[in-house]
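Supplementary Methods S3. Input chains for the assembly prediction are listed below.
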Amino acid sequence: MARYALRRLLIAIPTLLAISFIIFALLDLAPSDPTANLPLTIPPEVREKIRLSLGMGEPFVVRYFKWLEQFMVNEPLNVLEQWTGWTIGDSENRLRVLSWATRSPVVDLIVERLPQTLWVVGMSYVIAVVIAVPIGVISAYRQYSLFDQIGTFISMLGFSIPTFFTGLLLIVIFSVWLGWLPSIYDTTHVVRDWDSFVFQVKQMIMPTMVLALANASQISRFMRASMLDNLTQDYVRTARAKGLRERVVVLTHVLRNSLIPVVTVIALGVPTIFGGAIITEQIFRVNGIGQLLIIGIEGADIPLVQTLTFIFAILIVLFNLIADLIYGMLDPRIRYD
Amino acid sequence: MNSAPVLEVDGLKTVFGTRALAIHAVNDVSFSLREGELLGVVGESGSGKSVTMMSLLRLLPSPPARIEAGRVMFEGQDLVQLDDAGLRRVRGRGIGFVFQDPMTSLNPVFTVGFQLMEPLRTHLGLDRKAARKRAAELLALVGIPSPEARLDDYPHQFSGGMRQRVMIAIALACDPKVLIADEPTTALDVTIQAQILELVKDLRRKLGMAVVWITHDLGVVAGIADRVIVMYAGQVVERAEVEALYENPTHPYTRALMETLPGVDGARGQRLRTIAGQPPILTAPPAACPFAARCAHVHDRCREANPPLFEVVPGHAAACWLASPESGARNVL
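Predicted structure tokens for the full assembly:
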């Protein structure tokens, strides 16, 4: 297993290099101008100077490798220095990936935004999994029962209605009509005592529920289908013929087998947590990663967009590997030797 | 041979109900199993052998299957009426079950040891250590080499024959009074089949349980059974001691089945004999002899009423009008 993981990690390096090149090239080829949002009073020659100062005068290959060096070498070194307090080489003058819009290091921006995203989107994912697995199990075990019918109906709604609709609907109901919950997520809020904790929970409810509904709909359908596949297997009959309790038959024998494909689906969904739920963050004004990406795209902040997109790519490759490893742990028939 | 029956089935009827139609899979089946006896159950695919035996332990998914009538007496209890908890105490404890396909009958994600220890811990209340010891003994009993080490292996690490041995070990784990084996050798190749047959014969000698052996292979039955019931269209059509059945098969269906067996001696026939047609799918309880359409001796009465079992000689009965005492046509057969 360790050898397999190591080999996969090594294979990931060329994969990620190829992805980084494609991301860089795509964004570079896209027509955009970082000075377009500046006031119209700035004369064209000054604009040209601004562009040159951002490094846009260099040839494509030079810019790509410089970005690569900054992202792959300089930024990790910087993170290492911050964690350990060491000084490695000429850390003062090391060039970092800078945002064109804010002139601050991109990684610092991301670190600033990450907690909000992890709290709201991460929590919604946890809730989704916790809700979806039991719903899927019960729906499959009591197929076509009232519970299953209602579960199917809600899943279809959650699956097909986009989050910008459910989000606005919740805001209209719970913020506008009932006035129970705040419609805007206050990032500066600090939890100090019970009251501030209650406020934090209140402002998290709507964004997490909107996202949880969408995720839970999907995962519960996978869970249900997988359970149904397994409930009719011969080994289930064997387990019953052994005189085991129905609870043991379903929750030990069937569930363990059914979880194998579902765990993969869940693991592959984790990178989207870090990617942030762009639309939902926008609706509830959660200034997380998703919102940062939108701002970057709107402002033609190419370094920011490149870096974020590449981080998502790394996470996807990583969680693909993790999913495969979990698969191997759950299913003894799969051995990575 | 005249000891009391351990299992007595009386008038069992099982129906698969779908919204549109009902399939009558088991029609008024009665038989008894004596202590320590091996009862062979033969019939074509679709004759209701497996469904009958699974109905005994209510192992069929319900819906669509439901038992409409009948009694299954085991240890003074009617398994048809028994509550779930009572039924669980019979399953795996009093009656062990071996299924047809060893490749799919074991759970692929648990070790063989875990699956073997489950009934031991559930029914006998053994702790982990005692259950493990007993599980290793059971694997040794069914002839699996280095049993202690193999407890930690997964089913996919066993061959088909070895997996069927494991299934037998699981069925025998709690020392049941009755073992129901549902075509346990059908999915195995012939040499492995012979090994499993030998194993069951041997285990019967050692443990003395009664066995119901379902098969479509008359050769297998001749080798191991004490008594045989022949099933057709969810009914018992003939019931006899094994020698009597082979010497004097009475029901035309039994005779037809025997004629399909190629002989090993004598001149080689031009073609293998078959029984033309298919067993019927009954959408209503049979009102006529279900074999009439395929029978060489069919006459008007066969289409008017379904023959009950007539006793030809004591211990030998056949459900055919030609075997009825008043027909006088027994010599024809």
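Residues 97 and 105 of chain A are 6 Å apart (CA to CA). Chain A has twelve helices and no strands.
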